[in-house]
């Protein structure tokens, strides 16, 4: 990042520091902190079951979990247009390749963990609000959409075999119906980074490896068994792919 751009971001952060402590709007409401910022949806606190029994070892054991305070999560995956604003402002290094599928409102792909984190840091500095990548727990709670049990993406997600005519690539965000929280593409389209270090399971004794982070949600490339709220995969910090993107959360932290 250029020195001038960094100085500008630091100034914005200082000016907006008080905003980071402001309460979020009430659960269910949407907001956008700037014209090219992502639209955010405020989710209520709640309890749910993290993971599931049976199937993949990485998803077990099913564990009672709670979200203790409201938080906001982006209504869609981060788009190329939103990412371009970060590049133009000096907060992100360069726009990633789109595989000639088109940019605009398609989800940004080929984004590493550090690049996704840089985008969240830029948003925080620009707006003064506490933006970051979601935790695995926040992401899975959001993906459930207020439902009591996990579902697959069959018929409602862009994944291999989920739609009657699979496009074999990403779709523009919001092309398919939202979940119960009003969030689009939590399942399928692109797999999404979380901030959590990788653990091979939800077992309390499972050691974490911070050289890798948890990715969630399946993608256009994988079938419906991967497009579930509980699915999780390991991704090295430098991993980038044509089916990996991200979305951000905002809190009062």
Can you walk through the features of this model?
The chain is an alpha+beta fold. It contains four helices and eleven strands; from the N terminus they run H-E-E-E-E-E-H-H-E-H-E-E-E-E-E. It has helices at residues 3-15, 80-88, 113-127, 136-144; strands at 30-31, 40-43, 46-50, 63-67, 71-74, 130-132, 191-198, 209-216, 232-236, 244-245, 249-251. Strands 1-2-5-11-6 form a five-stranded antiparallel beta sheet. Strands 9-8-7-10 form a four-stranded mixed beta sheet. Strand 1 (30-31) and strand 2 (40-43) form a beta hairpin. Helix 1 (3-15) packs across helix 3. The longest helix is centred in the middle third of the chain and has 15 residues, at 113-127. It is globular, with a radius of gyration of 17 Å. The two termini are 26 Å apart.
Overall body shape: globular
Largest sheet: 5 strands, antiparallel
User: Secondary-structure element sequence?
Assistant: HEEEEEHHEHEEEEE
User: What number is the mean pLDDT?
Assistant: 91
Helix content: 10-25%
First and last CA, distance:
26 Å
Q: What structural category characterises the helix and strand content?
A: alpha+beta
Q: Poorly predicted ranges (pLDDT <50, ≥5 residues)?
A: 3-20
User: Radius of gyration, rounded?
Assistant: 17 Å
Total number of β-strand segments?
11
Spatial strand order of the main sheet: 1-2-5-11-6
Q: How many helices?
A: 4
> Please, what is the oligomeric state?
single chain
Beta-strand content bin: 15-25%
């Amino acid at each position: 990042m250029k020195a001038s751009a960094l100085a500008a971001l630091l100034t914005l952060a200082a000016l907006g520091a008080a905003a980071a402590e402001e309460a979020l709007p009430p659960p269910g409401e949407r907001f956008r902190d700037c014209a090219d910022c992502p639209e955010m949806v405020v989710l209520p606190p709640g309890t749910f079951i993290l993971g599931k029994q049976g199937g993949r070892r990485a998803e077990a054991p099913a564990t009672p979990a709670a979200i203790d305070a409201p938080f906001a999560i982006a209504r869609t995956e981060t788009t190329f247009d939103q990412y371009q604003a970060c590049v133009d402002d000096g907060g992100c290094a360069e726009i990633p390749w789109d595989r000639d599928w088109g940019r605009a409102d398609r989800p940004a792909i080929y984004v590493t963990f550090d690049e996704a984190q840089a985008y969240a840091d830029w948003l925080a500095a620009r707006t003064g609000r506490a933006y970051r990548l979601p935790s695995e727990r926040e992401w899975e709670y959001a993906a459930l959409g207020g439902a009591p049990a996990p579902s697959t993406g069959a018929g409602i997600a862009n994944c291999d075999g989920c739609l009657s005519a699979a496009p074999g690539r990403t779709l523009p965000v919001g092309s398919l119906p939202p979940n119960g929280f009003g969030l689009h593409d939590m399942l399928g389209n692109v797999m999404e980074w979380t901030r959590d270090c990788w653990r091979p399971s939800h077992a309390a004794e499972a050691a974490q490896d911070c050289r890798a982070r948890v990715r969630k949600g399946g993608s256009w490339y994988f079938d419906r068994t991967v497009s579930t709220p509980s699915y999780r995969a390991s991704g090295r910090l430098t991993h980038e792919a044509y089916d990996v993107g991200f979305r951000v959360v905002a809190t009062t932290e």
